[in-house]
Structures are given as structure tokens and as C-alpha cells.
Amino acid sequence: MKSDCIFCKIIKGEASANFVYRDEDIVVFHDTRPKAPVHVLIVPIEHIESVNSLEEKHSAIISKMMLKAREIAQRLGIRDSGYKLVINVGSGAGQVIFHLHIHLIGGWGRYENFVKTRAEARAISTEA
């Protein structure tokens, strides 16, 4: 883990997050600046900078992250209405935190108003 990485700090419990899921390989927590009614991040425990840093040894964790996305979408009540999985690779593509993560984004059909605050996002996740 990198000491200056906010996701590593969240994983180690040194920074707060609203967790949806956690196991020995990945964590899932709400984005602090949601772009949709439901916006969570799927993050590997191991610090991997980006897709460009992936090696063959990471194939199992990437597969697990993708499969867990489907499960989390179901848990948050958006699997059937549809959702996006987004991975930004590099600053030119909008990657701001250089620890690999997948944005799971959706819920537009489920909620009438776009949520903009973390508190609103938390309230939505507890409804699911």
C-alpha cells in the first residue's frame, strides 16, 4: 500500500468511507462526489495504479471486481434498471486517484431527483 493514496488509507481504516462491501481482496464504498443516484467504487485491496499497471497475476482480482459489480448492483437495486461500469485510465481520461477502481453508476430510473450529497447517497443505499 502507498502511504499517500487515499484509497489505501480508506482500506487501512485511516480515512472514512461508507462501505457497501469488504473482503480480503476488494472493498466497495460510496463515491464522495456521486455523479448519479447510485455511485460506488469497487477497489482492489492491493495498490495497483491503473489498468496500465495490470499484469497477468492480477487476472483473478479483475475478474472478481467485475463479478462483484453485478452483485453490488443487485444489492443496491439497480441491476435490472441498468448501470454503468467506468474505469478511467490516466489523468487524460479523468483518473484522479491513482489506485485502480471501477465506478458502478446507475439508479436514474429509480430516483426522480439526482442526488448530490453524500448523505443523500447514503440514504439511497439503505433503501435498497
Low-confidence stretches: none
User: Sheet with the most strands?
Assistant: 5 strands, antiparallel
CATH hierarchy: architecture: 2-Layer Sandwich
Average the pLDDT over all residues and give the rounded result. 89
How far from one another are the termini? 32 Å
Query: What is the name of the CATH topology?
Result: HIT family, subunit A
Overall outline: globular
CATH homologous superfamily descriptor: HIT-like
- State the CATH class: Alpha Beta
Portion in strands: 15-25%
Could you give the count of β-strands? 5
Q: What is the count of DSSP helices, taking H or I runs of 4+ residues? A: 3
Strand arrangement within the widest β-sheet reads 1-2-3-5-4
What count of structural domains?
A: 1
Q: Summarize the helix and strand pattern as letters.
A: HEEEHEEH
| Rg from Cα | 14 Å
SSE class: alpha+beta
| Percent helix range | 25-40%
